[in-house]
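Predict both folds.
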Amino acid sequence: MRALDRRRAAHSRRVHGIHNYLVDAEIPARAVEWATHSIHSPMLFLLMLNLFLLVAGCLMEIYPAIVVEVPLLVPIGAAFGIDPIRLGIIFLANMELGYLTPPVGLNLLMSSYRFRKSVPEVLRATLPVIAVLGVGVLLITYVPWLTTLLPKLVE
């Protein structure tokens, strides 16, 4: 058990080290500058964000993705006037969609192992769910009140 705890602590230090480097090197500020000069529409930014997060969800686990990507995405989202709660929901929805899609699709691999089925067989079974989640991600992204209504009611 202690070996597992040591590995987790070492992994946490590496991930936080990357986060600290990003902040110290002012990477978020540079990313905001690049994004605001290259992308002129919030809708285009959201489209590019969805594509980026979908690929990231295919390749990364959620914890490293949060630690590495969120410090980059929050300032860019703020520069385009995207509500932070909405941005967080978009982030999580895209990551889950990415978890279900190849090439890595962590949930596909875990389901394949758990149910003793091949990955292509699990993928075929999940295609309807992937389609529904894809529509949900688009709705969450492009209909802002779906993600901001409840938090505004609670305020």
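Second protein follows, with its predicted structure tokens after the sequence.
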Amino acid sequence: MINGRASVILFGALLLAACSSSGSSGTATPAPAPTTTTPPDAGPTPPSDEEQRTKAVQVMHDALLADVTALAQAVSDLKDAAPTPTGRGWDKTLDATAIASMRAAWIRARTAYEHIEGALAPLFPDIDTSIDARYDDFLADLAGQGGDAYLFDDKGVIGMHAVERVLYADVIPARVVTFEKALPGYVAAAMPATELEAADFKNKLCAKLVADTKTMLGEWTPAKIDVAIAYSGLVSLVEEQREKVVKASTSEEESRYSQRTMTDLRDNLAGTRTVYAAFQPWLLSRTNGGTDLDRAILSGFTALDAAYAAVSGEAIPEPPATWSAENPSAADLATPFGKLYVSVTSQVDRAKTESVVAKLDAAGALLGFAAPGK
């Protein structure tokens, strides 16, 4: 039994407990805010320009390595296929299989080189000249020596077009012969007519081309690639397409003996796209116009694609006899050659702000590369 005093104490304790319980059922007083906060995750840091440069170099190296390797292999196959019959030169009937094999290897080599020449030519100018200079270019340099009277050795006129001139000597267009006959030091194209000429074609002219392409393959390393020079080569590769078309109007185009300059143009454009892709992520990272420039550049490539697709076959359309590059007539511009000329020259004209070359120049400036000629 609880006495009176204890009852009062117990009642008071219960009342205090009840008040405490009632107070805890209301809204709790919020805890004071912390004095410091953790910032939200901002995501990965964008690559620096130096990292973008390094990545562009590596991507370009890896993308073009297959073509550099294919070039070296194709010219090696060409040399291996070259016949060296005893007591005679080449016979188009007896050596038909070998000649077909050499031509196929030459085409593979040409395709590979057209893909890569824009990037490699400015990086390895001496090798580019040795591999890819035209007959008329060599004769201009050899004018003081009277030209090059012997077609089959590793001196004077050498490289892919010297080999092409021999391999396709029997199918060279008459307009090309007419043009070349006017060159100082000209010697008519011919296949090897003697045992010695056949041996020299294989062991000298072709061997020189093999050596040059192997040198290029050995030199093609990221450490050898100057990214600014490589970008200028990309722009030059686009400009080269204009040069091919312009020179075709005077029978000076590159693959004029095999009559596949149109295919050269298509291969040039494919190589342009490959090299541009190495720089594209860097350009797109630029928030001050990179996306718009990328869109315009790709549109320019598409326009050139369409112009090349409109021409059937491997040979560039023959220019009309009345063609004048300085002042072409409306009738001449309406021919297949004229239409191609207009399409290419409009896209490869630095003075036209909407041309693909002008847009590539602007993209280069955005990436910090010097403008052409500066």
